[in-house]
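Training component of the fellowship. As part of building independent skills, the fellow (R.M.) carried out the full modelling exercise for a liganded target. The chosen ligand was T4K. The inputs are recorded below so that the supervisory panel can assess the work.
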Amino acid sequence: MRRRESLFVTRPMTPPLAELLPMLEEIWRSRTLTNNGPFLHKFETALTDFLGVEHVSVVANATLGLILALRQLRVRGEVITTPYSFVASSHAIRWAGAEPVFADIDPVTLNLDPASVERRITSRTSAILAVHCYGVPCDVAGLETVAARHDLKIVYDAAHAFGVRLAGTSVLHHGDMSVLSFHATKIFNTLEGGAIVARDRNAKIALDVLGNHGIVDETTIPALGMNAKMNEISAAFGLALLPHVEQAIQDRRAVAERYWQQLESVRGIRCVCPPGVPGHNYYAFPILVEASYPISRDALYEKLREQGIYARRYFHPLIADLPTYSDAPSAQPGELPVARDIAARVLCLPMFPDLDPENQQRVIDVIREQI
Ligand code: T4K
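Fellow's submitted model of the complex:
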């Protein structure tokens, strides 16, 4: 019997090779490989147009982007953040020289709960780092009210939120800065990469300097910078892929609709991101396995694996439960009840634009067969 192909949680997009090759030939001719070359500039311009924002600094990955954003905003002391995210969001706070303090999440959006954030504020709090988890927008109004009341900066980790719109406009307009990821596993990728969206031109220039070792010119290096530059091949890859993203999001929507139609009525399975929400990007398809489902989340995860389907428990364990952070008072047992409950029940199903109906049905069948 032919072995069925493995299905992973995601499958990166690549641009048509014929559209990338002429750009690679140009790079080969010019030998400009990195350090703010022409493709990087073209890519930044194309991104500002596509995203509908003005000030974009492209970086080597989102983790460095988050560190740069926090440093540029002079965040220090404590930063309130979500424990329900990829570990990079808290690591970035530590690398920027501050301490993450965890607040709980909302049970529907799975994003930071502004009321819980407000309860964590102390005289040492300088900022909020919120994540638009799975591309679902945070309660931006709630968070911004809290931030304004306590004079805090807001950085949005928008790693999952490429192309997301809220009330008809880019979600990236919110906060002091937003940071996108262009990692291979994201909606849009440059192999590795990311971008910081800043509010004004001066902030963008300062971020560019900070991400190029702090170098202003050959003899002027006033700041403690780092190397966060994107190379020319990644920028060319991004330029070639960008025209295909809109279609990819449409294709993701079709995948989400197929999941929804067959899973929404399954007792004990809750789909976190219903299709048809305007402005959503369908970055992931998380489900919550409730107590009324016949088997546990982990048992379902194993059943899927037996069939070569590698769903992922994003985001379990909680960041707060990792050894690097578990000593924090905000991470202690009894704290973060919603985040802990969700992390114990979540499973992200395979979701990518070219997930064909036949393979997707394999996933759905395993889930339905347990009933
Ligand atoms: N903030 C948030 C909220 C994030 O989710 C992330 C990253 C960041 C910040 C930091 O962004 P970057 O600094 O990375 O730009 C993956 C990604 O590595 C990570 O970028 C992402 N979040 C996270 C949610 O997922 P892993 O360790 O789970 O990935 P991995 O290698 O297991 O890949 C998942 C599946 O994807 C594989 O089973 C197969 C498939 N895959 C993966 C890659 C890399 C491919 O088919 N091809 C590939 O090239 O972290």
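The panel noted the following from the submitted structure. The pocket of T4K is lined by residues 8-12, 61-63, 85-86, 88-89, 131, 157, 159-160, 181, 183-185, 194, 310, 314 (CB under 6 Å). The CA atoms of residues 300 and 367 lie 7 Å apart.
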